[in-house]
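For the sake of transparency, this paper describes our internal protein records without simplification. The record that follows is passed on verbatim for readers who wish to inspect the format:
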Amino acid sequence: MVEEEAKSLPMELSEKEGVENNGFVQNEAFDDKETDTSSQEVPKTCMIDVDPVATEELVLKPYAGMPKEVLLKFSSQARYRVTREILFWLIIAAAVMLVCATIAIIALSPKCLDWWQASPIYQIYPRSFKDSDMDGNGDLKGIQEKLDHITYLNIKTIWLTSFFKSPLKDLGYGAEDFYDIDPMFGSMSDFENLLAAVHDRGLKVIMDFIPNHTSDKHQWFQLSRNRTGKYTDYYIWQDCLQAAGSVTPPNNWVSIYGNSSWQFDDVRKQCYFHQFGKEQPDLNFRNLAVQQEIHDIIKFWLGKGIDGFSFSAIKFLLEATHLRDEPRVNKSQNPDSITAYSQLYHDYTTTQVGMHDIIRSFRQTMNQYSSEPGRYR
């Protein structure tokens, strides 16, 4: 019966069974009592029956801030250990799948760089590269003979500087005929053989093209100076004064090589504009017929199989139509003493509005020949 009462009722302690002071002020009821240790009775033993399983469950019940020892007991249980292992291997599997997916996407997706960006470009000036016929000048056959050397260097693209038929002024950059090869470098047949050999080795070829001007020997200029049909305005002509062998140009514009960029023509009796040498008159790109001529030239060489072009001197394509003097760098300088290109700010002869539209039109023509797979130009 003692065990049943212990479970249901608090255990009552007799005054004679002693009092334990747990830090509280002693009860005043005990102050006046004298304790006689000799007459104390032996305390009765109380038996309390406690269920071990219930106690264990009470101890292991999770709660906020439980100590590490209790936490470890929970973590070692099967239901937590198995869940933890499953999550661990799922994370490992997900990481492996992510890496594999990344590799697959990189391998299968189109390359970010085009062929003309993926490797160095080997520039060749034909006249000084390789002379195949021992006439003192390099030529196209000489380039073909050295293709194995280019391949050995792991070069993927060859850039040929100007080889158009020309009087060879300014390294040949004033073309006399954009549709022909200068005899110094060979023939059109030599070029076609070179192009085939280059492509057989998996290489690409780009060629120089400066559309800004031609040679004064070009047929267009000869027709323009005679005011023949549509060619009359193929170049930039302006009235200018000539007296006693001296020419007064329309404005103060100077060429890159110095002195006035206007040259008097005895045939037409006008001045033509040239941003480079006087043997290199500028084309009039405000004339749509001139723009079409350039597109036709691009199509001709793309049709031959060329892979691309290096367009140079693009910023000079257009000039301001108002022909005002360009501002001087040194405001105090005598305007009549200006002869050098660096003495002016070239606000009216470079990068004019409409220039980018012309370049975009070149790109559109190139795109017409870029539809074949693997032949992006």
Notes: Residues 69-108 form one domain. The radius of gyration is 48 Å. Confidence is low (pLDDT under 50) at residues 1-20, 22-40. The longest strand covers residues 204-209.
